Amino acid sequence: MDKTSYYFERLVGSGSFFKLETRIFHAVCLALVVCISINIPVALYLQIPSLAVLLSAVVVSAGILYYLSRIKSMHQLSAGVFQVFVNVALVFNYYFNSGINGPTYTIFLLAFLVCVVTSPTKQYYLWLPLNILLVTGLLTVEFLFPETIKLTYPDSQGRYIDMVFSYLIIAGFAFMVTVYIIKAYNKQREELIIKTQDLETANVTKNKLLSVIGHDLKEPIASLQSYLEVLVDFELDEQEKQQIKSQLLAMTKNASMMLSNILLWTRGQMQHFNPDLHTLSVSEALESVISQVQRIADNKQIRFWIDIPAVITVKADRQMFELVVRNILMNAIKFTSSRGNIWLSANIENQQCVICIKDDGIGIPDQLQKDIFSLSVKSQQGTDLERGVGLGLMLCKEFTELQGGEITFKSRLAEGTTFRLSFPVVENANS
């Protein structure tokens, strides 16, 4: 928004606090003050002091009504008084400004336009008949009693000047009001379109989220129930019991991570996250993450290769940073076969810290890659029939971008996947 638009919005009021017709009323009052103020010197030049006094009264009254509506929030009272005052002022203007030989009857038409755009719809049936009645009544009185209206122009040149200036003022006033109305309605329509699209997106996302919850959490719980029923109904040796316990623990951890991701994402939709950015040592921040996922990888006999220089520091939110890397590492473990490899490295490229997580797992099918960071992709089973993390990769993208970072990936089926995370690097963090 440029400065002119900013200050104009301050004058007419914000759309979040005032209705459209109220903002139009404010704009009309301001335009009236400006246009009538320009016409006062013209009245003095034409040697019609009574008209100059009347126009000055209109300017002051419009300013007061604007103040009552904009500052004191008394719009209904201000709008009603405005309509009455404008019509009364025009009656006096008709008398003091040469009647039908002056421009007042055209100003009546403009006054009705203002009335329509600033009044509630139900009041149209009051102001239209009143406007017609006043104009026809004044014209009739002047026709029947022409001596009641005096020609106040000193000469024909004065009348010509007044008509020209009046036309310019009326045209300028109508132009400003019409342009503002069009812009205001267009802006309001665009806001409604955006809100409608947001609601549609939220509804689609909600349905997908319910599908994720119903599918990804129901299955682990059902498996837990089946394993527990086996423990209760059958006599098992210690080796079989230990195997079931290990499987139960793995499924519980996986379900816990999925539930954590769902809760995080839901909270992020309800209230926008504000990352708490600090200078972090990458190796130190990821120490606990590596320790956690290392145990899970050991159960699948997956080898971890880590290369993170201790000197690399980034600007990031610690919790978000750890969650992003943890989710991607968990994803790599799930889709890497037993005795596979996962590489975790960090280096500096073009003032960015690039964290690379590479695996030689099963890869991502081409048809799924374009939607990998959305809820459109259903969670897939891992190499040991683990369930996918569900919202994990979508959270990774959102949280990475919130921290000013970027996430990309490359994958080939049956060859593996490489994720690249870029974060703003902090140089000379210890200096």
From TrEMBL:
Keywords: Kinase, Membrane, Phosphoprotein, Transferase, Transmembrane, Transmembrane helix, Two-component regulatory system. Residues 212-427 form the Histidine kinase domain. It catalyses: ATP + protein L-histidine = ADP + protein N-phospho-L-histidine. The chain crosses the membrane at residues 24-45, 51-68, 77-96, 102-119, 126-145, 165-185. Pfam families: HATPase_c. GO terms for molecular function: phosphorelay sensor kinase activity. InterPro entries: HATPase_C_sf, HATPase_dom, His_kinase_dom, HisK_dim/P_dom, HisK_dim/P_sf, Sensor_HK_Regulatory, Sig_transdc_His_kin-like_C. Its EC number is 2.7.13.3. This is histidine kinase. It comes from Dyadobacter psychrotolerans. The lineage of its organism: Bacteria, Pseudomonadati, Bacteroidota, Cytophagia, Cytophagales.
